[in-house]
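Hi all, a correction to my earlier message: I attached the wrong file for Multicopper oxidase LPR2 isoform B. Here's the right sequence:
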Amino acid sequence: MDTRTLLLKLLITLVALSGCSSSASDHLVNVSKLEKFVDELPHMPKILGYHLSDGVPKSKSLKIGMFKKKWKFHRDLAPATVYAFGTTKHTATVPGPTIEALYGVDTHVRWQNHLPPKHILPWDPTIPTAMTNSTRGIPTVVHLHGGIHAPESDGNANAWFTSKYNERGPTWTKKTYHYPNNQQPGNLWYHDHAMGLTRVNLLAGLLGAYIIRHPQIEDPLGLPSGDEFDRTLIVFDRSFRTDGSIFMSSTGNNPKIHPQWQPEYFGDAIIVNGKAWPRLTVRRRKYRFRIINASNARFFRFFFTNGLRFTHVASDSAYIEKPVTTNETLVGPSEITDIVVDFSQSKSNLAILANDAKYPYPAGDPVNEANGKVIKFIIVPDQEVDTSRVPKRLLEYPVVDLSSVAHTRYVAMYEYASDIDEPTHLYLNAKPYEAAATETPKVGSTEVWYVINLTEDNHPLHIHLGLFKVLDQTALVKPDDEFRECMKKINDAVKCHVDKYARGKKEEVPAHERGWKNVFKMIPGHVTKIAVRFSYIHTNASYVFDATTEPGYVYHCHVKYTYHFF
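and the right structure:
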């Protein structure tokens, strides 16, 4: 194999169950009767991914476990059984501790599985999964979302392991993952990525934040800083039974095909940092909020009920060049939006962060009183001196050079349905998991991808390793039945004359999403053009590790399924 070539294999893994229906034995909480804003917003524990020796930061090795324990999501709910990350069972939390790393300082993490043999949530054995009826433990593997690191530390879906590493997946190679932290400063998050179990393991609680800081270039920006004024908000949705336990339906939308699997999970309660509809008292000054949408399928269109605005400073794992101010912001599953809010501009002493995104997005049900509220901010009345600022310019990275594009690819999203017109699975480029690698970019190259969404839903596409810029989004002109039928038959966009159909209305890429991203929302019935870079964006230098080894990397929709590539 050419050692300069990334190994890209398309991996499809169904990882879904849904909370859309219930059996007679399930007694669900009517969340509309739960009082909102009664719990304080938690500060998640912080773990430093480095240590200081004579004032000099040095590499650090961490041991972080996955534990079964009880967690209270709301004052009036009984504690739920969850799976939680932590250095001990006693200190484990949902979400897990925030790992703070330093640019250029290696962090090594030994992820340890202390989970019991039986899962707390239903899983469907009819989909490709790491778990079988004979598996003696719950398979897990951790992916650092947004991280740039070697394949063997990327959390490949088949690199799973059970308690004490008693059973291991076919691509498992090592107990300790190495994160070199040589990429641009920004926001990442870690979560389970096990074959066929990603959804249930995340719903059980296996997720947390990871921040790479670069004080030499970030401190001069003057943005709000410190634990009080720089907060990470991990937002997701859950439903609960009356005994406090997390609810997930055990009946599939195609029970004759998949007894339990459903295409999406939507919960009734909105959770922020492990509490349902929390509150936070803030001062009349600027705050920075790093908001991670860790939901399975729910999009959030955030806005403030009192008219406060968002000033965007970063998106996903990278700063944008200039701050952008908006009245609302749409955040898809797995996306990260990094904003500054100036509470001194509020005309009231209360501000509610709300949501009005339909579910499934964009053409599903409207929000209700429960899932339309997120968090309440109580603003102290006294004005104060605020020395933080939002600079006119943030961080600039080298521009995309389209003249040096090494390869152009077409990636098509297909959704397949049963004879009762219910979704059964989704493929990228009509390829199943077992298919050979279809994308083989060169290390250091830039490629242009045209992502063709032939489904009815918006799909947040996440690319491991590579970062990309969204160049444009173009609607397929109607009627496009001939194009769709041709694509289903031969999956060749050029031979199916995509240029003849991709000439409809262009959707403007939001200004705050024109920087480097690792997730983007692919609009249904549109062709989205992206430029993907396979090197560090801040230096254009090659990676400090061998990115061409097995088991490669993946790209995937972060809602329904996982796809493997590279």
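Sorry for the mix-up. The domain at 230-383 is CATH 2.60.40.420 (Immunoglobulin-like).
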